[in-house]
Amino acid sequence: MTHKPLIQQLLTNDTASRWLFVALLALGIGVPFLNLVVPPDSVFHVPTYMVTLLGKYLCFAILALALDLIWGYCGILSLGHGAFFALGGYAMGMYLMRQIGDRGVYGNPVLPDFMVFLNWQELPWYWLGFDNFGLALLMVFLAPGLLAFLFGWLAFRSRVTGVYLSIITQALTYALMLAFFRNDMGFGGNNGLTDFKDILGFNLQADSTRIVLFLATVIVLALAYVLCQYITRSKAGRVLISIRDAESRTRFIGYRVEHYKLFVFILSALIAGVAGALYVPQIGIINPSEFNPLNSIEIVIWVAIGGRGTLYGAVIGAVLVNYAKTTFTSGIFAEYWLFILGALFVITTIYLPRGVVGIMDGYLSRRKSRQDKSMAAASPQAGVATGGKQP
Q1: What pLDDT, in 10s, does the model give residues 312-355?
Q2: Under a CB-based contact definition with an 8 Å cutoff, are residues 65 and 271 in contact?
Q3: How far apart are CA 260 and CA 266, in angstroms?
Q4: Can you give the pTM of this predicted structure?
């Protein structure tokens, strides 16, 4: 067995991954060039709002990738992954709020505006240190990771599986939504955290900052994809697939199933938290609505429509569905979007169980089969042309 670097394996053995990396490279080079270099009056100019919109789509792609890792390869259907996404977003939002300083509406150099409005006298202890980017980055990983560890350890140790686990994850994110809506929690209540000014000293409204955030999202998506591919192609990945297909048998032959589940669940939560941290500075707000269980259900729909258990299908599904959402909700079909989304999910589940990538794979397979038949049909003629001697 030859040991090649993973990125080389992806580019040589996986056509879909190769095209995904080509697309990310094109976005990483083309979007900044078309935004910063091409004149605004040119038809090829990409406006800054479009850069932000593309960045949002890619953040959702990272989130879908995180869910596909546990659902597509381990069979854990989480209906609460929006909670990990939101926790990573709140960690970054707290740092951005501390950076406002005395530039807020009330001019308080320490307390955020919502705390001044609610007559808070001092900064809560859990806000201390969030003026430091390093601590905020640590909390982006620690908050969703710790929650995933505690929840996963209790659930998997108790052998909670299937629909029961899905319901518990949905209840978890709903409970967090209700908690974060409370003003006395110290996270902005219903309004959440917003009115951000800068990040690491750079103006968040500047085109150059938006481009850097977009590039950071492209890079993180590529790294997350490589990491997930490495996991799924390793021995641990084969065990995860075995757990998905026959959990009892996998446990019977000696594997500690709960350990593998806990590992992949925590890793998925960490990836979701990073997606939330990248999402907040680009969108400019984080509030308790991100914990809404409907958001977590939408993530499942992205993965199902794109193609569960393929990773690249999850990326495609997240981008396609959110592009469709932007298109339909900005027109006359805005009030019908949820019905359209539900219909897409039902059609995909019944008629397209492998999602969009299943259609693509089927087309490529049929094309290759026709080519093979054409070559097989042409080979006897070639033999006659050469005097009956086959090369």
Answers
A1: 999 999 999 999 999 888 877 788 888 888 888 888 878 877 88
A2: yes
A3: 10
A4: 0.91
Closest C-alpha to 89, from 210, 194, 184? 194
Instruction: Say if CB 177 and CB 79 are below 8 A apart.
Output: no
**DSSP secondary structure string for all residues of 309-373:** T-SHHHHHHHHHHHHHHHHHHTTTTGGGHHHHHHHHHHHHHHH-TTHHHHHHHHHHHHHHHHHHH
Exposed e or buried b per residue across 331-348, where buried means at least 16 C-beta atoms within 10 angstroms of its C-beta:
eeeeeeeeeebeebbeeb
Nearest by Cα to 203 from 90, 99, 98, 88: 99
Report pLDDT for 380: 57
Residue type, 103: R
Q: 201 with 193: CB under 8 angstroms? A: no
Alpha helices, H only, the chain:
6-13, 15-36, 48-74, 81-98, 113-117, 133-157, 162-181, 207-233, 235-245, 247-252, 257-283, 293-306, 312-329, 337-351, 355-385
DSSP strand pairing (202-203 vs 198-199): antiparallel
Q: Of all residues in the chain, what percent carry a pLDDT higher than 90?
A: 75
The three-state secondary structure class of 198 is strand
Alpha-carbon gap, residue 340 to 345, rounded angstroms? 9
pLDDT of 123 > 70? The answer is: yes
Query: How far apart (Å, rounded) are the C-alpha atoms in residues 360 and 97?
Result: 45
**Does residue 12 carry a pLDDT above 70?**
no
**Cα 263 to Cα 235: distance, rounded to the nearest angstrom:** 14
Q: Which two tokens stand for residue 127?
A: 């806000």
**Among 358, 290, 231, 226, residue whose Cα is nearest residue 56:** 290
Confidence of residue 6 (pLDDT cuts 50, 70, 90): low
